[in-house]
Sequence to fold (577 residues):
Amino acid sequence: MQYPLTEKIGDPELLVGREKEFKHFGKWIKNIPKRLSKSRVIIARRKSGKTSFVQRIFNQLWTENKEVIPFYFEFDENKMWYPELAIKYYRAFASQYISFITRAPNLVIDHLSLEQIREFGISKSIEPLINDVDFLIKNKEIGGSHGLMWKTACEAPHRYASVLDTKFLVILDEFQNITKYIYRDEKCQEEADETLAGSYHSLAESKVAPMLVTGSYAGWLLKVISQYLEAGRLSQIRFSPYLTEDEGLEAVYKYASFYEEPITNETVLQINELCMADPFFISCVIISDYEDKDLTTSKGVADTVDYELSEENAEMYLTWGEYIHHTVNEVNDQNAKNILLFLSKNNEKYFTPTDLKEKLGLDLEINEIHKQLIVLKEADLITRAVSNIHFRGLQDGTLNLILRKSFEEEIKEFAPDFKQEFADQIAELKKENKQLQGKLNSLSGKIAENMLATALRNKKRFSLSKFFKNVKDNTVLNIQKVKERVHIQREDGKNMELDIVAQSSCDRVVLVEVKKTQTKTGLNKVEDFQEKVEVYKTNFPDTIVLAAYLSLGGFTEEAGDFCLRHGIAVAEIIEEL
Fold:
């Protein structure tokens, strides 16, 4: 896997889970060469991970280098004169196209100039590149047809796919910004030209260059699509900000490992529970600047989560608080907050303006309540049913916590005691999970790997027999560093991956393979692991290696005998947490 497009999430390994979504989009992408895929729009609230998701799709397609050529462009929040947008857009497209066919990853980000694109077109006899650049340069210099410059740029993927008999995937991130930040006048002092979104009206129906559109403001994005692209031209895909339970646990382990934040297997469950498997929320807690942060205790977890929801300088609060307050201030002070808080706390059913007037005792006319509901809906803070008068709060636990923290004291005259609520939630969790081993049985092998790595980090001075059987070297270990997914290379260049590498201060290194399958681990698997051990020994001849294999499904008799003969310690459960 290569990452020519730098992903906003940071280290690529921090993108956890989304297996269901990747599988779903994988089928859609496979149908692009057959001209069967319809353009799509991802509907999700901000900080849901959609940008990281589409950037990963780009990198996967670029790495595969098969029939579908990816093109990624973000409409950012900077004012721009639209002839300049045309050149910027075209340079990005042409550079990424050239990057794909020449396998030059730097061109994905470091775009070629128009002159360089033209030179490449001449060298490879690609006439569209030559003709387009000539047209753009000519009109740029003489101040000619700016409208046709933009048309040349935005239609390029569809034209190239048709003329060159290939297929493109056009990924347009933050698409709604095209209606707010692009101007017809050079000084960008007049009104932004929101009609520019209509340039994609027919392109949205392209089967040779289908579009994948995203945006951080779902209501605004859908309004733009409905008005300028016709909503039916793009299939709407709902994208949840929440991971599955297993994926959320993996995210906690992953962020804690990368940021070297001490945790325990017990507090991992607690962080995931309180953060509702929301990866952004989890990351905020792990990297929180809370002065008394201690994520190895239940109280420390509860206090840190509360800090992220409450402190005005905390990343979580900064991300949501400003957005909510700005939106509510545009509607109406206390009444809007009251409506929003009520709908968020009772988000299991729909309410009409008449219902809200009665239940909240609002001193407002029905039509005024309806107007406020519309604004809240367009701000992506509530949803509306097919009926024009039925509204419901978002079923979004993270957002609802922020709303409560922001407005509950003002409306109800008492502040929510999140620390106590979180403590109660953790107490319930402890009752349900008295034995973490029981929890382990339902988790994936990847999480088992994370749990074992954390246990190795937390345990002070132990012999390997604390975790594994058939241990031949019972030297007391003082683990200094634990790494997961460590890559090593065989002499012939073949890459191998070790699940866990734990280094002790006594020049011993524990190498662990972790497997969870429905069937028992067989001879081939343990032989493959033994080969990795031998390669590691060759690469680090001065290190004493202790090999161990955790197979949650058990071992076949042959595999067990092999491990015993070769000094590989074994385990079927994690004995010490």
About this structure: Residues 10 and 52 are 9 Å apart (CA to CA). The chain has a mean pLDDT of 89. The first strand starts at residue 40 and ends at 43. DSSP finds 22 helices and 14 strands in the chain.
